[in-house]
Amino acid sequence: TEVDADLFSEEGEQVHVVAQKGTYNTDTKQLFLEKDVRVVRVSEDQRLFTDTLYYHDETRTVHSPSPTRLVGKNIEINGQSLDYNIATNQYKIGGRVLCTITEDEK
User: Fold this and answer.
1) Buried b / exposed e across 73-101, counting CB within 10 Å, b at 16+?
2) Which long-range contacts (CB under 8 A, 24 or more apart) does 95-104 make?
3) What distance in Å separates the CA atoms of residue 35 and residue 61, rounded to the nearest whole number?
4) Mind listing the pLDDT tens digit for each residue in 7-65?
5) How many CA atoms lie within 13 A of 83 on its CB side?
6) What is the rounded CA–CA span in Å between residue 96 and residue 30?
7) CA–CA distance from 101 to each of 4, 104, 106 (Å)?
8) For the chain, what is the total number of helices (H) and then of strands (E)?
9) How far is CA 87 from the centre of its chain?
10) In whole angstroms, how far apart are CA 9 and each of 13, 14, 36, 73, 93?
């Protein structure tokens, strides 16, 4: 089933999620997204692009075993995998990583 949804955290942060296919397992509380996955953290002006993404509701963690591209203000990070802990706001990007940082235009 195609996914195009706005999700809101307990703190009220909006996250827009789009994927060609998605399933949610109510027993394990895991969301699985695949094919052209795009996640936008609106308040952070941050965008994530990948082909496979798992969200674990109980641990509030995100995992992508696929190549990923993370784009934010003045930064783009490309890697072979991604782990994100929502509670700590920490990212781990694995494999060969390419990071491009640009300066603000004056």
Assistant:
1) eeeebbbebbebebeeeebebeeeeeeee
2) 95/67, 99/75, 100/75, 100/76, 101/74, 101/75, 102/74, 102/75, 103/74, 104/74
3) 20
4) 887 778 888 999 999 999 999 989 999 999 999 988 888 999 999 999 998 898 999 99
5) 5
6) 27
7) 30, 10, 16
8) 0, 11
9) 14
10) 5, 7, 23, 21, 23
> Would you state the structure tokens that stand for residue 24, as one six-digit string?
């949610």
Q: Over the stretch 45-61, which tens digit does the pLDDT of each residue have?
A: 899 999 999 999 889 89
Which of 34, 41, 44, 50 shows the shortest CA–CA distance to 2? 34
pTM, entire model = 0.87
**Type and span of the H or E element at 55:** strand 46-56
State the Cα–Cα distance between residues 89 and 95, nearest whole angstrom. 20
pLDDT of 105 > 80? The answer is: no
Tokens (6 digits) for 26: 């109510």
